[in-house]
Amino acid sequence: MTRPLNMLAVRLGAYHLSDTAPNDCLYSIIQAERHHAYKNIFAGDDIAMLKLDRDIKFCKSVGPVPRLAQAGEIFNEKSICYAAGWGCIAGGVPLREPGTLQEARLSVMDSRICLQHLHYAGWKTIRPEMICAGRPGTTACHGDSGGPLMCYSRNNLVQVGVVSGGNKHCAGPTVFTRVSSYRDFIQKYTNRTSAELH
Questions:
Q1: CB burial readout 53-89, b (16+ within 10 A) else e
Q2: What band does 94 get if pLDDT is binned at 50, 70 and 90?
Q3: So where are the chain's domains?
Q4: Which top CATH class is 81-181?
Q5: What is the b/e burial string over 104-113, where b = at least 16 CB atoms within 10 angstroms of the residue's CB?
């Protein structure tokens, strides 16, 4: 993290960036744990856990992640997947007011094909702990980092990845951190059993 924690906050349940959130939707971050092996996005392990100042209250617009993908669970080009975020809508083009949460339908992409698209942007390998997704003209972009990749599995949404990176022009696929490879890391900081993570 590049900023001190006391300069950051988490806002839950927002749909428009311009919305003013009531105080009960704002949470202070009291601890941030980056994965111990993280060096840069190209090397992988791009995942962190945040500890908030109090328990989250679930409501209509705030709920738990339905389920984390499990090791060995297969997602491919036939999977129906979505990414969400408030990032740029194209390379360097920010969202306009009111900054409505964006959703993009993406297709999971074979790692070799993904690397062909991203090699010029500095990517040398797509590790097994990563997953690629995108569609022509549709991808995650600057400002979407840390957002979810959700795919349907047996008619239920599953969190499969976390936005890591792509290329500076927001053209081509996005590389996501594959959450199923980090279930132990997530368990360590959430004090939840594997069964509770589903």
A1: eeeeeeeeeeeeeeebbeeeeebeeebebebbbbbbe
A2: confident
A3: 5-57, 81-181
A4: mainly beta
A5: bebbbbebee
Q: Could you please report the per-residue DSSP string of 26-80?
A: EEEEEEEEE-TT-S-GGG----EEEEESSPPPPBTTB---S-BPPTT----TTS-
Q: Identify the three-state secondary structure at position 135.
A: strand
Amino acid at 128: P
The 8-class DSSP code of residue 90 comes to B
Q: For the beta carbon of residue 132, count every other beta carbon within 10 angstroms.
A: 27
The candidate with the shortest Cα–Cα distance to 89, out of 36, 137, 148, is: 137
pLDDT for residue 138: 87
Nearest residue to 86 via CA among 145, 163, 144:
144
- pLDDT band at 130, cuts 50/70/90? very high
Query: What phi and psi values does residue 93 have, to the nearest 5 degrees?
Result: -105, 105
Would you give the DSSP letter of residue 171? -
Cα–Cα distances in angstroms (integers) from residue 2 to residues 48, 62, 185, in the given order: 13, 27, 21
Q: How confident is the model at residue 36 (pLDDT cuts 50, 70, 90)?
A: very high
